[in-house]
Amino acid sequence: MSAVVEPQPPVAPHPAIAPLAPLLGTWRGDGQGEYPTIQPFGYLEEVRFGHLGRPFLTYRQRTRAADDGRPLHAETGYLRCPSPDRVELILAHPTGITEICEGSLTFEDGALRMELDSTSIGRSSTAKLVTALGRSIRQTGDTIDYTLRMAAVGEPMQHHLAASLKRAD
């Protein structure tokens, strides 16, 4: 049995996520990845931040290889703002990893900044061993720049990804 969802009128963002409102929309760009256990690679990325009128943003990320367009990675989850200077990112990865990161939210010189570190990493029995993740995100105007740090498969925490995304809508 299938259900049909009727289109709903636009709803205003919840007041608790007002500091995150500049992120709403679709962002596209490219990045570079590296790690001691893999060859460096380029990728194309799309990120969508949405909302449902509740105190969180929805988050959907997809990447594909820059050289041949093959799918690489995806993440889906939520971004919460429990206080004006704190942020939480809750994600599921199709590789069997779940990630909860928490950290600071600041605004300086027109830039929104988030500094996030993992507080919990869950994994299925077949997932690679990822022990820690950290993200630095900066949104200024129509640009999001980020870096991702990772400790995995016996390697210590270190740089893994960096990308720059532009507002697409």
Note down, in words, how this protein is organized:
Helices cover 0% and strands 65% of the residues. The protein is an all-beta fold and 169 residues long. The chain has one domain: Lipocalin, CATH 2.40.128. Pathway: Nitrogen metabolism. Its EC number is 5.99.-.-.
Summarize the structure.
This protein is mainly β and 169 residues long. 0% of the residues lie in helices and 65% in strands.
List its traits:
mainly beta, globular, 0% helix, Lipocalin, 169 residues, 65% strand
* Class derived from helix and strand content: mainly beta
Mean pLDDT metric = 94
Low-pLDDT segments: none
| Strand order in space, largest sheet | 1-2-3-4-5-6-7-8-9-10
E-strand count: 10
Oligomer: single chain
Q: What composes the largest sheet?
A: 10 strands, antiparallel, barrel
| The level-1 CATH class | Mainly Beta
Proportion of strand residues: over 45%
CATH superfamily (homologous) name: Calycin beta-barrel core domain
Element order: H for helix, E for strand: EEEEEEEEEE
With helices defined by DSSP (H or I, 4 residues minimum), what is the helix count? 0
